[in-house]
Amino acid sequence: MGAFAAVLRKDLRLEIRSGQSTIALFALSLLIMVVLVFALNPQPIDRARDAAAALWVALVFGGMLGATRSMIAENENGCMRALTLSPIDPAALYGAKLAAAFAFMAIVEIAAVGLITLFFNLDFGADLARLAPSLMFGTLGFAALATLLAAISSRTRAGDLLLPILAIPLFIPAIIAGVKASEAALSGFPLAAASQWLGILAAFDVLFITLGALLFEHVIRED
Amino acid sequence: MEHFDYLFAAYSIIFVVIFAYVAFIWRRQARLETELHAMEERLQNLKPVSPSPGVKSAVEN
Amino acid sequence: MKNKIGTALGLMTLGLMLVSLFMVFEWVPTEADQGIVQRIFYFHVPCAWVAFAAFGIVAIAGVFYLWLKDQIWDDLGYAAAEIGMVFCTLVLVTGSLWAKPIWGTWWTWDSRLTTTFILWLLYGGYLMLRAMADDTEEVARFGAVIGIAAALDVPVVILSVRLWRTIHPAVLITRSGEHGLEDPRMVITLLVALAAFTALFGWLLRLRFQQLRTRTRLTILRREVALIEAAVGDY
Taking an 8 Å Cβ-Cβ cutoff, which residues of chain A contact chain C? Predict the structure, then answer.
């Protein structure tokens, strides 16, 4: 537990100190949404669907960039190597990185929710609150996936291109379920209506967090 | 025999692709075997030139 | 490639393929609604079977590689992934050629095609990874991880896509000719075709796998030669 907390604290502190990447990530999410507004030209009748779509596109692409950057930073200053050589349990290391990634993505997500409320003329209220489960599960799942995959992609040529190529196909079931659940929430349906989708999201999270914890050691090992 | 073209196209593509893949393997194999023989020869030529006693030979098995 | 198992597999493949083709084009009756185009089905389905089976092998090989650390498992996984990709592509192409005359569109997001397409993307990612990383032990490990992750993802994909399509069906016409195999001759033809493609898969896999083994041997030899030459050069 000590190792987990230590690494987590390190990652969080690093990010808070530099601060730039979270802001940049937020700026990026904002711009992604702007593109979608002009691309979709949302009509009031479709607003739940379009808002859900915009949210998840921002989640996926914003999250991707965040993950690559943090991994590259760690590889660059040799930090990853040091962590690998230390006796830290790889699963704990994975957990810490996952938690940090999730924290950043969550912050950006919350800001993104504020944005879509404005851009797509949603109401602040119960609908937004009902978004929480799908967004939380989705962000968690994506963070789990990205933490594992970024460790791989950052060690290959054109790693920043490889990450989306690997991550997006794997994430598709979560996108399908997540957008549907988010759309249901924003359309005013009770959470129970989206239970199947949320179930898929939860299963996805369990699967990839477990997989990440088990396989992370094989990815960071250097021999 | 309506839509025969689609049927014909589908089966043709299947066979063309499979043959192309087999051809790909075949060509690779020729190259690999040449290089393999060359390497094995080099190894044979190097063997009589045994390294100094202090150096453990990687080939001694 | 001149040994007995390979030849046996090859002959079996050839034989089954010829029988299959005869059955598809001469023996099996034409399906009532779709006409002769429906015959694409008899080779389309086996391609899908091979694609999914190959995928399973990639994952299992990945597990064994991470567990036993023997390069032979990586060679097997890579061979299976390549072949799986070939057949996955064939599923999509033949599916498209079947869809156009029947449904009037080259592509549709029905649950089977969508799932196969996602499988294709997963394979593509695996192969891109192998292409972009240099051939080291590292890429074998990475490949194993991706192969395992992808295989475990597939059930979730199937589930989510099926749910997605039952709530919003993309195609109004149901895919007839798959569960509605009225004539027993159709079932037999399909089974023979499946056998033919299984033999083909085995033959191709063995071919490519042995080639990769040769390549691995070559890499080891190269290293040995370099080692000796360096030692000799130190005089």
Answer: 148, 152, 155-158, 162, 165-166, 168-170, 172-174, 176-177, 180, 196-197, 200, 203-204, 207-208, 211, 215, 218-219, 221-223
Question: Region A167-180: what's the mean pLDDT?
Answer: 96
C151 near A CB under 8 A? no
| Assigned token pair, A38 | 């002009």
Mean pLDDT of C135-144: 87
Tokens of C1: 């490639």
pLDDT of B53: 56
> CB–CB of A170 and C138 under 8 A?
no
Please, which pLDDT band fits residue A40 given cuts at 50, 70 and 90? Answer: confident
* Structure tokens belonging to residue C138: 């590292």
Does C125 reach chain A within 8 Å, measured CB to CB? yes
Q: Is C154 on the interface with A (CB under 8 A)?
A: no
Cα radius of gyration rounded to whole Å, chain A: 18
User: Are residues A65 and A108 in contact, defined by beta-carbon separation less than 8 angstroms?
Assistant: no
Contact with chain C for residue B10, Cβ under 8 A: yes
Residue-wise pLDDT for C80-105, tens only, equals 999 999 999 999 999 999 989 988 88
What proportion of chain C, given as a percentage, has pLDDT over 90? 64
Instruction: Give the whole-angstrom CA distance, residue A163 versus residue A169.
Output: 11
Contact A148/C142, CB-based, under 8 Å? no
Tens digits of residue pLDDT in C3-50: 888 899 999 999 999 999 999 998 888 887 788 888 999 999 999 999
Q: B50 by DSSP, 3-state: which?
A: coil
Chain C residues touching A222 at Cβ < 8 A: 138
What's the pLDDT score for residue C142?
A: 95
The type of residue at A93 is: L
Closest residue in C to B14 (Cα–Cα) = C90
Taking a C-beta distance cutoff of 8 angstroms, is the pair A202, A137 a contact?
Answer: yes
Nearest to C107 by CA among C36, C170, C31: C170
Residue C167 pLDDT > 80: no
Q: Taking Cα atoms as reference points, which of A109, A82, A113 lies closest to residue A185?
A: A113
Higher pLDDT, A187 or C152: C152
pLDDT band at C197 (very low <50, low <70, confident <90, very high): very high
Q: How big is the CA angle at C153 (ends A172 and A48), to the nearest 5 degrees?
A: 25
Which residues make Cβ contacts (< 8 Å) with residue A74, sequence separation at least 6?
A: A80, A83
| Rounded Cα distance, C56 and C76, in Å | 12
Neighboring chain C residues of A148 at a CB cutoff of 8 Å: 145, 149
Cβ–Cβ of C156/A218 closer than 8 Å? no
What residue has token string 């109401």?
A123
CA angle A180, A181, A182 (to 5 degrees): 90
